[in-house]
Design a protein that fits this description.
The chain is mainly α and 122 residues long. The longest helix is centred in the C-terminal third of the chain and has 28 residues. It has five helices and no strands. Helices cover 74% and strands 0% of the residues. It has a single domain, classed as Isoleucyl-tRNA Synthetase, Domain 1 (Orthogonal Bundle), CATH 1.10.730.10.
């Protein structure tokens, strides 16, 4: 319970998911939990960016409608990540699913895509 109080339940849950490889003991490191708490903050900030720029879901959108190369790139990467997450979940390798989601969100979506979009919204 001390870890939940310090880092939050979501950070602890995600850390356990990422570290829970089959046949491996989980050794909790508070620094890892803090890192995954930062992942939650990264998601929050990405959502705020989308809301501030009035990004809305378009149910009529089709992948071929993406005009900007950066949009086509991120949609390709999203498709790859979705496949990896789905494969991890269906094969009960939840750590691989969580890792794929983490890599897409942090390394591609937030670090690259959102940064490349900022000039578009200004």
């Amino acid at each position: 319970l001390d870890l939940i109080d310090e880092y939050g339940a979501d950070a602890l849950r995600f850390t356990l998911t990422v570290m829970a490889a089959q046949g491996r003991d989980v050794k909790l490191d508070p620094a890892r939990i803090a890192g995954y708490r930062n992942f939650g903050t990264k998601l929050w900030n990405a959502t705020r960016f989308a809301e501030m720029n009035e990004v809305a879901r378009n149910d009529d959108f089709w992948l071929n409608d993406a005009k900007l190369p950066v949009n086509r790139w991120i949609l390709t990467e999203l498709t790859r990540a979705a496949r990896a997450v789905t494969e991890g979940i269906t094969s009960y390798r939840f750590n691989e699913a969580a890792g794929a989601a983490y890599r897409f969100v942090w390394n591609l979506f937030c670090d690259w895509y959102l940064e490349l979009l900022k000039p578009v919204f200004m």
